[in-house]
Amino acid sequence: MISPKLEAEILRLYHAEKWRVGTIAGQLGVHHGVVRRVLARDGAEEPKRSRATRLDPYIPLIIATWKQYPKLLASRLYEMCHQRGYRGSPDHFRHMVAPYRPKPTAEAYLRLKTLPGEQAQVDWGHFGKLTIGHAARSLLAFVMVLSYSRRIFLRFFLGQQSENFLRGHQAAFGAWGGVVRVVLYDNLKSAVLERRGDAIRFNPLLLEFARHYRFAPRPVAVARGNEKGRVERSIAYIRRAFFMARRFRDVDDLNRQAQEWCDGPACQRRWVEDDRLTVREAFEKERPLLLPLPPAPFPTDERRELEVGKTPYVRFDHNDYSVPHELVRQTVVVVASLQTVRIMHRSTVVAEHDRGFDRRRQIEDPAHIERLVEHKRQARAHRGLDRLAAAAPASRELLTCLAQRGANLGSATARLLGLLDEFGAARLEQAIGEAIEKDIPHHHAVRQILERQHRAEGRRPALPVELPDDPRVRELTIRPHTLESYDALTRDIVDPQEPNDHGE
Question: Out of 3.30.870.10, 3.40.980.10, 3.30.2320.80, 3.30.420.10, which CATH number does the structure's domain 119-289 have?
């Protein structure tokens, strides 16, 4: 692009001073192609070339081909001409054929206006990745904009599944206190599953949601982004005015900040239809014309039928959730919100967990595991090893050393689990590492290291808080020993400073 001043100077030199194209380009410091484009737009005829070029025999082929295939690339035309004998360079060819390329007809657009409360526009915005534990989740922004007042609703999700799409709608309607009559979408899968011209197959879940809230879903025409330009511009505005250089702890903290921003700075900007008003003031005019909310919200929980494997866990969203062991090899229904995961079997809730967004985690209810251990006692050893390995990874190397020396691994595991309960995971891991480093890989050495650390810190040694659940121990009666026997012992001790009976 060149400035209007430079364009005017080119036209003046050509028409008034009768300068040639090359002279204008050389004196103004621009490419001669720029000069020719300015003259072509003005309707001036370029001077004819004084000499023939090697491209001249191929010009009829180029014009005819581009007339039939207007979008054909110049590189493909070069190959066609090269096969027919053209020996110029590809760069020079593209430069020479540029004036013959068909120019698309400029399209004029009407400025779209909507009535208050009539329409909203919706789209997803991608905002990179968010690391949670071992998982890298996609961070997506659900954006809904009221077409009349330009009021923005923003909510971030860790995925763009249909349930999150509906959750965004529901939260926006709740924040605005009403529903618009038409919601405009791009042809995204959350709204449109398939489209053939005017034949549209909507996502059935979206149709149920729209029927519940009494609005009409409407996709824009293919390749007509201008029809939903308000939400497109709003996403760009969110990127530069809200998200850029934003710090947050997690998604909940980010959404809290997004709500404050939507209610604050985003509402204080000038309304495009009348700069005497703010977006907040325009929204107050639009709010009474919104449709009322239904009496009950639409259920937006994720619902999946899943099979429990041979272990009492069901995998949902990359994590394993425990279930009662009686349900192994059976089909259950997982109903998940953003906070909880409920597992149902035959219309009965059999398990409920806090939802995790990490990856490959085992989220357990201790009661499920305890019941399994009671049912199958031989599982205790494996369970103990898993718990020990998770709390103190160095225990694997220690048990390997003990196995090589022929020690009893079951007894060692039980002793290490006792140390884990007594001293904690961090201290146990450190003590095991010190024992292995000093080449004394034994659970007794680990206990000595832990007790030495306790004494160095001035702590009393830990004592068991309860007796074993054994009637022989609980019914045991201990009779205290008389201390007179100790007095007799002291009388038999001879003081070396006093003479004995023999005067020695």
Answer: 3.30.420.10
